[in-house]
Batch of 2 targets.
Target 1
Amino acid sequence: MVSFSSTKLLLVICVMVISAFSVAIGGKFNEEFDITWGDGRAKILNNGDLLTLSLDKISGSGFQSKNEYLFGKIDMQLKLVPGNSAGTVTAYYLSSQGPKHDEIDFEFLGNLSGDPYTLHTNVFSQGKGDREQQFHLWFDPTADFHTYSILWNPQRIIFYVDGTPIREYKNLESIGVSYPKKQPMRIYSSLWNADDWATRGGLVKTDWSQAPFSASYRNFNANACIPNSPSSSCSSNSATSTSSSWLNEELDNTSQERFKWVQKNYMIYNYCTDSKSWRLWVKSEVQDGHFLYKLLLILRYCGGGVSPEMEPPKKLTPPSLLKESECDQKSEEGWEVVTV
Ligand SMILES: *[C@@H]1O[C@H](CO)[C@@H](O)[C@H](O)[C@H]1NC(C)=O
Ligand SMILES: *[C@@H]1O[C@H](CO)[C@@H](O)[C@H](O)[C@H]1NC(C)=O
């Protein structure tokens, strides 16, 4: 076990190393991205300033970043499929490779004309996701471009929409929740047909008479670290204190207020409060009293990092506290531990 203070020291060292290699990248799509599929349906236009994806009955399309990033603040402006976009999904996310991959997701689920898009978010760490939160937006995302940002630093992941934080996922490794911090990730985006589940759970199908569907991207901007790159590309633009402030970025009071406003008024699904697993847990605990076993299952469901193969810890954090902490930004102070 590493003590808290040495973990902290390690973090400080990491941060120092990272800031030395942080780069600011401004966005020509032809320089920063590769079109990966879609057979001509994805296009880079206006001298690299604009990228469009399209979807028809035969295929969708997609692109990915040339670089991999390990921590960063990444902004992209998107204008989503207008009109009847039911059944379509525009995904914009960071992901590493392999079965134990990490991933930070924005997914935009289309809807019938006049009905709201759903913005679906998720965080995978070590191959484990199931951390969905969904939102409606306070504007029409098809009428104009809006900025969707991912802040990813060693302490937290924050999802922003036009600078308003909508979700925060904290590093809670100290209580056994795994956190993406070792695997570099690429940016990916795609537009595809998901009418088997996307709109009202698959009830509303894609209306192909509206095809081709199209989404647009512009103003890509990243302050990020690019690991394993020749020092020239990493240190040529070595970080000044302002360009690396994202490394310590957290929600200030004003952002906290905005954040609460979104969570209160626009969040439509939160895995943390999904009652299915909780009802199951309470019921079975009451019925047969297999407390430890049930607790492990719940920890596994809501926290990651704890699996049944692990030796049962002697002391456990109550699942309600763990959930609140992972989900509602409870402070780490004042943790209670129970002896089982
Ligand atoms: C579509 O619109 C309906 C009705 O307003 C809403 O309940 C739903 O969340 C919207 N989004 C999706 C993806 O179904
Ligand atoms: C933020 O809020 C806390 C407590 O609510 C307060 O102590 C602190 O002074 C505030 N900071 C700013 C910059 O307003």
Target 2
Amino acid sequence: MVMAGWRKAMTRAAVGTAGCVFLVVYLGSSLFHVGSGAVHSTAFAPLKSVAHQTDVDGAEPAPSERLAEQTPQEGVGPAGLLLPQDSLPATEALLRATLPLGLATLPAESADNPPSAAKVELGRRLFFDPLLSADQTVSCATCHQPDHGLASPEPLAVGIGGRVGRRNAPSLFNRVYGQHFFWDGRADSLEAQSLLPIANPDEMGEDLDTILVRLTEHPEYPRLFEAAFSHAAGSAAVTAEHLGAALAAFQRTLLLGDSPVDRFRAASDVTGLSLEARQGLWIFESRGRCWQCHSGENFSDEQFHNTGVAFGADNRDVGRFEVTGVAEDRFRFKTPSLRGVAQTAPYMHDGSVRTLEDVVEFYNRGGAQEDRELSPLMRPLNLSDEEKRYLVEFLKALSYQAGPSVAK
Ligand code: HEC
Ligand code: HEC
């Protein structure tokens, strides 16, 4: 039943009546094992070991070496740099009419930019295209890698010319539920957000007008923009607005749900969820206090908190304060979703926490209790070693997803 929807959705989307059509991506091929029968524990393939990470203490290798080490599927960009390739299943196979189990109804905000198959396809191509960067060596996927939970394995994002930014590149799953974007929430919509990395000197480093000229002169893009957007006769189809809209429409299809945790919650189905992970869920919802901020279907309250990350660091990033200028917002950052989190190490806005075990240790200490501006919700937890392990198991279970053919 779940499988049946996408073809219909695609057709409806293609004729432009897509206001209520949900385009849903299941990341099949490289991340998740697609089971073929009833749900059982082997239907959930273990994700890449969280121990396999960048050595934050070690010497920084050149960006090309790093990508070569950490990106199994790669191509060569015009300047010889290795680029993460689009390993997502074909758009046809990805578009679905139903949400993965456990996710809330999609918000209606995307009404201004209704999805269509042509728009999503265009956004997808742009997302993987280094043409959007100054020297054509960096694509969105350089930092939001499909085989790394759409996040970056670097503690701090590495952009054009190997320039290191000041924050960690977060996962792009379930951003359709986002209310503010970036760690400090400085962008209000995905459309607006999507244009910002292009001009950022540490990321793609190019003036937007130059990129629009490049796209207009490209042999294929003008036709793809025309197919994706209706526009007044004689006016240009390749505009900044359309570029942002296509990238946003594609990103809204990147959904992650239907984890063993969702199956357990929906139908008390314990087959995919170990006893340890179930204990972890219980701690998450009680003594662990995690639910106070990582709440709701997407495990985020979409609010800003100071958990004590980077306490004591030189020139500590002030986070939300930069946007609002309100004193209470100093050192506050947006609560990230925890779906897919086992894929996306290292963690936190500065990539300073290397493993999920370290994350749990951090919370067990109560963050940085010496920090006078710490959120009052942060307290030492006094968890036993076993309980800490349960929490980690729970976080890992949230990152698994059953393949489409396993869905009921
Ligand atoms: C050089 C690495 C890099 C590149 C290239 C890059 N990003 Fe990002 N992205 C980041 C970092 C770092 C952040 C967090 C920045 C911050 O919070 O200040 C981010 C944040 C985001 C967010 C916000 C997510 C959230 O939860 O708030 C979105 C959406 C996003 N990027 C999309 C894109 C798109 C689309 C492109 C291509 C046009 C792109 N990124 C290119 C590094 C990168
Ligand atoms: C006071 C609100 C709050 C509480 C309570 C809380 N978190 Fe967080 N969590 C956040 C915020 C905010 C961040 C990002 C902090 C930063 O980067 O500075 C975060 C980050 C994380 C991350 C890193 C995610 C990533 O993509 O980098 C994980 C994992 C996590 N929390 C798990 C937990 C667990 C497990 C608990 C309970 C033991 C918990 N959190 C309790 C607000 C909270």
